[in-house]
Specification:
The protein is an alpha+beta fold. It is built from 6 helices and 6 strands; from the N terminus they run ααααββββααββ. It has 2 domains: about 40 residues; about 120 residues, Beta-lactamase Inhibitory Protein, Chain:B, domain 1 (2-Layer Sandwich), CATH 3.30.1450.10. Helices cover about 35% and strands about 25% of the residues. The longest helix is centred in the first third of the chain and has 22 residues. The two termini are about 35 Å apart.
Length: about 170
Amino acid sequence: MKKLVTAGAVLLATLTLAACSSSSSSSSSKTKVTTSSSKKKYTGITKSKFDQIKLSETDGTSLSDVEKSFGKKPSSTSTDTIQDVKTDMNTWTGVANAGLGSTIAVGFSNGHAVSKAISELKVNRSEKIDLNKFNSITNGMSADDVKKSLGEPNGLSITSIAGTSAEDWTY
């Protein structure tokens, strides 16, 4: 434990010294640091773009349209079966304003998006979700009532395939 505290103190001191040395650099150097910082935080993958993905076996959003919207190809791909329908799952990482492990996964069947999921969304809640709040959720509650009680979900998964639609929220 003592070694961990010492290592943390050394790391903090190093970062502090690095910050001090960068503040004495020229203004053009500061501009470059700010610019690279901005680029590092920017990502074309957002919750609002996720929301725009249309799910339908006949006219759902295409993979090429999702790639254009996100500004890049998926980080990984795999094949999955949803309700006996083979789907090509494509996953993108690094959702803007989300947690470190944030992802968006979109399933395509016959070239059309039929499922989508997003995870690790950062949500500001006025109150923590405790056991009492959790227990207040009952079968048959409307989506609006659940949101009123718990707030926005940190993740969601939506599927529309084989005539069935389902939506799961993660808190």
